[in-house]
Amino acid sequence: MDNRINRFIYYSRIILILFIIQQVASKVGGLVANLFTYKKVDPQNLFAFISFHHIVQALIALIIIIVCKKLYDITFGFKLGKVKEGLTDVGIFTIIMLVYVLISYVIGYYFGIIKPLDFPLDARNVLGTLGFQLFLSGPSEEILFRALPISILLLVFKKSIILKWKISLETIIAACLFSIAHIKWSLSPFEINMDYFQLVYAFIMGIAYGRVYQKSGSIIYPMLMHSISNVLFVGIGYFFSAIS
Hints:
Blueprint: H1 2-33, H2 48-71, H3 83-110, H4 123-157, H5 169-180, E1 184-187, E2 190-193, H6 196-216, H7 220-243
Antiparallel strand pairs: 1-2
């Protein structure tokens, strides 16, 4: 019994450390991004700030990964892995997301749930936002919220702990941390804001990305899935907005 309690406390500490790392990386990314002004390149503040934020966030995660690779024998999935399986999963995921996004927008516009955009759909805004979603959102977030925590947890657990539907415990924990990361909070003034649908959606996506990461042995495919998902939501949203 004592050993189980000790292991639980140890695992909880590791998860807490991962949570702190992710939160600090995100907050530092925001602080660094706030040092600059983007009015000339991004008057509506749609993509420049968040792009800089995600670059800094990814760099912090990569530094930690490099240190961990030197200290421990850890594979973080920066390789092609099982290409056929990875690409197949990306293809299936893309089709599912395309159908889901189209249905969501049709229902959203039909019932007036989706609000009209409050910024112009000019070339700068469209290319800037889609460029961020395609090249930075997936890579940055998958490095910090998938490759880092799942690989560290595998080291701590000493093996993958498979639960139902071939989903591992480490993937579920990483998905929970990813979901929590979507809670907006500040200390001065102290406030916490959350969108419950977004939290559930982030958790489900986290499970999908994590499962493909472990199945393929590569973080490349979850990066592609993440970016494709975001591009579909933003791009199709622009299309519906333009024709409505």
